[in-house]
Amino acid sequence: MAKKLDEALEKVPYFRLFGADVSERFLKLFIRGDESSPILLGELGGSVLPDFTELELSSVTREVEGHRIRGTMETVPCLDLTLRKASKSQGPWEQLLHSDEEVLNKPQGTLEEFQVQQRKREESPDRSDWTPDDFADEQKEKADAAFKEGAFRDAIVYYTRALRHTPRNERLLSNRSAAYCKISKFQLALDDVNLAMQIEPSWAKLFFRKGHALRGLRKWQEAAGAFEEGREHDPSNPDWDKEIQRTWAARDAFLARKK
Fold this sequence. Notes:
This protein is an alpha+beta fold and about 260 residues long. The protein has a domain at about 1-65 and about 75-120: Immunoglobulin-like. Helix content is about 50%, strand content about 15%. The chain has helices at about 1-10, 100-105, 110-120, 130-150, 150-165, 170-180, 185-200, 205-215, 220-235, 240-259; strands spanning about 20, 25-30, 40-45, 55-65, 75-80, 95-100. It has a 4-stranded antiparallel β-sheet with strand order 1-2-3-6, with helices on one face. It has a two-stranded antiparallel ribbon with strand order 4-5. Helix 4 runs antiparallel to helix 5 and helix 9 packs antiparallel against helix 10. It is globular. The mean pLDDT is about 85. One of its GO terms (molecular function) is Hsp90 protein binding. Keywords: Repeat, TPR repeat.
């Protein structure tokens, strides 16, 4: 994708490739010539001043996810979109952009047409009497659905929102840990499971999570130890021995590749 973008930029400047339509409360970011399939489309978390919108192309250097050599870096193009908040919307927003993946997967018209459609949608449920648990459950439901669909990054976003309402919820931390493992963010996965263990130290599933995260970090002995400790809490589960065997097999395969 980055290579194709570089090739395109050799022929035309970036502002002829990308476009942004911005109103006080709505945003549409798109590739020119393909406006019906926007990159971003949704309602902003507050009001902005559309005339001060800036769109620039820069670059960012990041670690290559899933690369067999840890620490391998790459520099890729980055499209920077800057919005200026209106005076009535200064301060942090709960969410920068309310966007629906289902909407993005359908052909779209102009930003004005999208705004009209949004106004016609059913009103959100009355949340005036909701507790923090209610808000967390709403986000957890979205997170669980995203996880099942394999959209692990989206799941992480929703679990994180849920944790803002109930930060000491060990099940949310456990689920987010699993999602982090799916995208090879093993240290973040370990951080979550360690916090969850402070809340519920005897929950056997957390030892699975911890073992998986440690194995991803190539801390073989600690990973096997986590599975062994989990077996003490749930001795009837045959999966502990399987995970220990997988850990040593992963270590052996890793060492063989280094020879």
